[in-house]
Amino acid sequence: MNKRPVLLRHAAQLITLQGTSEQPVTGKAMSDLHIIEDGAVWIEDGFIQMVDTDESVTAFYRDRLHEAHVIDATGRVVTPGLIDAHTHLVFGGSREQEYEMRLAGKSYMEIMNAGGGIHNSTRATQAASEEELYELSYKRLNRFLQYGVTTLEAKSGYGLTLEHEMKQLRVAKRLHESHPIDIVSTFMGAHAVPAEYKQDPDRFVDIVVNEMIPEVAKSGLAQFNDVFCEHGVFTPEQSERILRAGMEHGLLPKIHADEIEPYQGAELAARLGAVSADHLLRASDEGIRQMAEKGVVAVLLPGTAFFLKAEAANGRKMIDAGVAVALSTDRNPGSSPTENLPFMMNLGCQTMGMTPAEVVVATTINAAHAIKQAHRVGSLEKGKVADLVVFDAPNYAYMQYHYAVNLVETVIKAGQIVVEKGRLTDDLSVSSA
Ligand code: NIG
Ligand code: FE
Fold first, then answer.
1. Could you tell me the distance, in angstroms and rounded to a whole number, from the CA of residue 400 to the centre of ligand 2?
2. Which atom of ligand 1 is nearest to 118's Cα?
3. pLDDT tens per residue, range 70-127
4. CA distance readout (Å), 282 to 94, 266, 294, 358, 363
């Protein structure tokens, strides 16, 4: 822990998002970033102590200014640490050959139904040791950190047996404890129907419900339960059974919904009061309306649409309908192999009709709400964890305009400077800690 306080000074735009911790941000409020010009933040003991204009903060701490490590953010935008609310972080192998097959005309679902896709990554993940998965994922986390991500959600779902799902979840826990990024875990045993249950998928659902969920819940290794509700994977009825079983064991529901075909996934999320429904490329208008009514956060994944060459989810329509929108990478080996969350913001503007202000809300406080972390992170306010990013951009619109490059200059995680001049400060090479 940093003994010295950190004083961040003179931010051209200090994006605070003050007052947004209670409820996900919706509608016109998604355009209000609560900006302080020439802003400053005093950080001590890992937490934010004061957020105000440079004049006010330096006046308040005038007797202690000499103690502080000063970061000069003149001419820079400063945001809360970015939050990625949907990743499949822990897996073995990679699928560049399938990418080549897709470029040659095969579809994502064709490859999966022929035993590739998620099944391919499941084989690689089952074959990998805990140590190997830890090292691969640690490297991915380092990349996330360089893109300004300080908290992320990680799903299991490439184990597909109790033993291997638990292995993935244990790796996520170890990463949470040893890497600066905070990890929130989701169990996703219902990510695909294993080949041996193809003729009788309900038997696999029985195993998820009766064997996996109770054990996972008992272990305390996951907070959420997710399911791939999609034509040819799990039906809405099977998905409901799986999510309700999780709820009975205290696992909060999330859902991969309406990604490839319209399938009543958004409606199911609303009916269950899911914390979030994710993907939603093909969600129905009625499903969107119900999500708004029930306060289900839409976690949109523009990188997946981009990489699968699909039409992106209609973020504009959802925001106008009153749905709280978050944006995430969906980091996974098949449909979105990237850690570049700022590029998802660019895509949100380019392909989803969102504005530069809305994409900031979608990757900070609304992402925090989508993983139940808004009481700790997602905005810059006294008492919150001191997670901040300094961007080499004079204003937040510039962050979207100068697109697809990494503008992250400095990252502060829980009061520690973990990225400086765009580089990791510490020796964040893999340690077996
Ligand atoms: O969110 N849609 C299902 N699951 C992942 C992809 C997993 C994979 O292809 O390995 C997703 O896109
Ligand atoms: Fe996903």
1. 24
2. 10
3. 999 999 999 999 999 999 999 999 999 999 999 999 999 999 999 999 999 999 999 9
4. 27, 9, 19, 21, 22
Q: Residue 428 Cα, ligand 2 centroid: separation in angstroms?
A: 27
Strands 149-155 and 77-80, sheet pairing: unpaired
Interval between CA 424 and ligand 1 midpoint (Å): 29
Is the C-beta atom of 91 inside 6 A of ligand 1? Answer: no
Distance, CA 293 to ligand 1 centroid (Å)?
Answer: 27
16 CA to centre of ligand 1 in angstroms: 33
Mean pLDDT calculated for residue range 399-419: 98
Task: Name the residue of 335, 338, 344 whose CB sits within 8 Å of the most ligand 1 atoms, as the mutation to test its pocket.
Answer: 335
Instruction: Single out the residue of 237, 134, 126, 238 nearest to residue 177, CA to CA.
Output: 134
Ligand 1 atom 1 nearest Cα? 330
Task: Indicate if ligand 1 lies below 6 Å from the C-beta of 330.
Answer: yes
Q: Is 124 in the pocket of ligand 1 (CB under 6 A)?
A: no
Give the Cα separation of 426 and 213 in Å (integer). 38
Q: Give this prediction's pTM.
A: 0.98
Q: Percent of the chain beyond pLDDT 70?
A: 98
Q: How many CA atoms lie within 13 A of 300 on its CB side?
A: 38
Residue 260 C-alpha from the chain's centroid: 20
* 117 Cα distance to chain centroid: 21
Question: Which residue's C-alpha comes closest to atom 3 of ligand 1?
Answer: 228
Return left, alpha or beta for 232; rule: phi > 0 is left, psi -120 to 50 is alpha, else beta. left
Distance CA 184, CA 153 (A): 5
Please state the rounded mean pLDDT for residues 385-395: 99
